[in-house]
Design a protein that fits this description.
The chain has 426 residues and is α/β, with parallel strands linked by helices. The chain has 16 helices and 13 strands. The protein is 44% helix and 12% strand.
Length: 426
């Protein structure tokens, strides 16, 4: 076992917070402490978080109901909305969401966890802003770091009193650094590291990433349209000889943590069933750790006349850590990642073109804009006609271009940068 260098704290809410923590487990001796579900958590705190999570998931699923569902979701989203970037202005005033959490903290929420971890004195590294609030409020003795899990963040991610805070924020880009300065966070407390991506998909010197990309670009450019114009760029950046494409084309479709948009995966299987049966395409349906989503997909596959293991696979494990490993493993031979613009937006840096389903919430609107700005994400067109527009994107080289845009423009080394930061502080 490796030496424990940090206390790594996440939240068991969807996948975003724990997915960001997963690549840093080698710094924490494999341990990820979930603030809302750790061993010994007071029962009242557990109940507090369970009620909040159930409400969020219920409202997320309601969003697809016309009018009423959208109205209910918009009320919730209002309290976590990210303000427009321009004009530059002072946004340091606390918001309702912060005051809500601080009321609970003042009543004792999180005290037990900080008392448990404080004797170690290790850096407190978290992917969840409330955990950073708690660590600072209860005077955690070590350094406090908060990793930002989206391409932009609401005011709630910054401290309620930013000018007096000692929490350091590890942000994915210079733009997010500017955002946190608007929130009143001191410049010296904002460090641009990039989002922590899985090391097993990168390699120490990007050798794994480059090998996967060398194969993928050929697969995504069957008529050579992209390579006709950009072969010299590929030679200089990928630094790996192109690998001949091996059919079929592989699409990985991932639902969100609340099971949102599972119906898109179902429709995708239905529409692509002939291509799958003819072995022109293969689809990974990502159910995460949700058994009900796995069973839903199993039913969909059966009704489409297909079989698991014969052109369709389901990525599932009841344990989230094991699920993340299976998901990362399947990305090696994935050609297209199809998902809503969640924290998986950052995975475009692995050279994965992202076909985006509709955003769910303000932060995903910003993630979508970020992907479009870089040319790494493409909005899904109507699924009714996917067998027409997807081949058009493929044969034109557009998907190969999106893969390279993500590889060239997004930061890949976030996990390594954070590791170096921690090691340099020792």
């Amino acid at each position: 076992m490796s030496e424990k260098k940090i206390n790594l704290v996440a939240a068991d809410m969807g996948y975003g917070h724990q997915r960001a923590a997963y690549p840093l487990r080698d710094l924490s001796n494999g341990e990820v402490i979930t603030i809302n579900n750790y061993e010994g958590i007071p029962s009242w705190e557990r109940s507090y978080w369970i009620k909040g999570l159930r409400s969020y998931e219920r409202i997320s699923r309601l969003k697809k109901i016309p009018f009423i569902g959208e109205w209910i979701f918009s009320i919730m989203d209002f309290f976590q909305k990210i303000p427009a970037r321009y004009p530059s202005r002072d946004l340091s005033q606390p918001i309702f969401q912060q005051k809500y959490f601080y009321r609970s903290i003042k009543k004792g929420m999180g005290r037990h966890l900080i008392e448990k971890l404080s004797p170690t004195g290790l850096p407190f590294v978290t992917t969840f802003f409330v955990a950073a609030y708690i660590a600072e409020h209860y005077n955690y003795p070590g350094d406090i770091y908060c990793i930002i899990c989206d391409t932009d963040a609401s005011r709630s991610w910054a401290p309620i009193n930013p000018a007096a805070s000692r929490t350091k924020f590890l942000v994915p880009s210079g733009k997010v650094k500017d955002r946190f300065m608007m929130y009143g966070v001191k410049k010296e407390n904002i460090i641009v590291t990039g989002f922590p991506l899985p090391k097993e998909n990168i390699g120490f010197n990007k050798e794994t990433l480059q090998s996967d990309l060398a194969r993928r670009v050929v697969e995504l450019d069957p008529k050579g349209k992209y390579r006709e114009h950009y072969q010299s760029l590929l030679d200089g950046e990928v630094k790996k000889p192109p690998v001949n494409a091996v059919s079929p084309l592989v699409i990985t479709f991932a639902v969100g943590g609340a099971g949102a948009q599972k119906e898109i995966g179902a429709k995708l299987i239905t529409k692509l069933s002939k291509e799958i049966a003819d072995k022109n395409m293969r689809v990974n349906l990502v159910a995460g750790n949700r058994l009900e989503i796995k069973e839903y997909f199993l039913d969909v596959v059966s009704k489409a006349g297909l079989k698991i293991g014969e052109g369709v696979d389901i990525v599932y494990d009841p344990d989230k850590t094991a699920y993340f490993k299976k998901f990362n493993d399947c990305l090696h031979d994935t050609d297209i990642l199809w998902t809503k613009p969640s924290e998986l937006s950052f995975y475009c840096a692995l050279g994965l073109p992202i076909i985006m389903s509709a955003p769910v919430g303000s932060q995903e609107d910003f993630n979508r804009d970020w992907l479009l700005e870089m040319g790494a994400g493409i909005d899904s067109l109507p699924l009714e006609y996917v067998t027409e527009w997807l081949p058009d994107m493929l044969y034109s080289g557009r998907l190969a271009r999106a893969a390279m845009n993500g590889f060239l423009n997004a930061e890949q080394m976030g996990a390594y940068n954070i590791e170096k930061l921690i090691n340099d502080k020792k």
